[in-house]
């Protein structure tokens, strides 16, 4: 099966050997995005809500490059360095997604690249 690499200049460049997203058939797999500013590659300053918005903005840029919106996202994976931030990240996610919401997992991790507090990956299915 063929793969199509998806890239947006409006999202941070990959900081490792991976693509921002890959389409296989009618499924798009989004790599995890952290709250890096796309222009500078530097972690945005601010609390967890600021960081979460930057993450979802980065994912939205990649989704736009793929020609889709968040309504086609079927799964979201959230990685937090502090589960105490769960409610704030939920509130930010609700700004980007409408019902019916995608399936989701939220996992606390010891650390994330560049000392980010949050990372999010997604899977979308095209109709």
If you had to describe this structure to a student in words, what would you say it looks like?
By secondary structure, the chain is an alpha+beta fold. The protein has one domain: 2-Layer Sandwich (60s Ribosomal Protein L30, Chain: A). Helices cover 24% and strands 29% of the residues. It is built from two helices and six strands; from the N terminus they run βββαβαββ. It has a six-stranded mixed beta sheet with strand order 1-2-3-6-4-5, covered by helices on one side. α1 packs parallel to α2. The longest helix has 19 residues. The two termini are 18 Å apart. The mean pLDDT is 96.
Notable characteristics:
24% helix; 60s Ribosomal Protein L30, Chain: A; 2 helices; 127 residues; 6 strands; alpha+beta; six-stranded mixed β-sheet; globular
Distance between the termini: 18 Å
Count of DSSP strands: 6
Q: Provide the CATH topology.
A: 60s Ribosomal Protein L30, Chain: A
Task: Tell me the series of helices and strands, N- to C-terminal.
Answer: EEEHEHEE
As a percent range, the share of strand residues is: 25-35%
CATH superfamily: RutC-like
**What structural class is derived from the secondary structure elements?**
alpha+beta
Radius of gyration: 14 Å
Mean pLDDT: 96
Q: Give the overall form.
A: globular
The major sheet is characterized as: 6 strands, mixed
Count of alpha/pi helices = 2
Reading off the top of the CATH hierarchy, the class is best stated as Alpha Beta
The side-by-side strand order for the widest beta sheet comes to 1-2-3-6-4-5
CATH arch. level architecture:
2-Layer Sandwich
- The tally of domains stands at 1
What is the assembly state of the chains in this entry? single chain
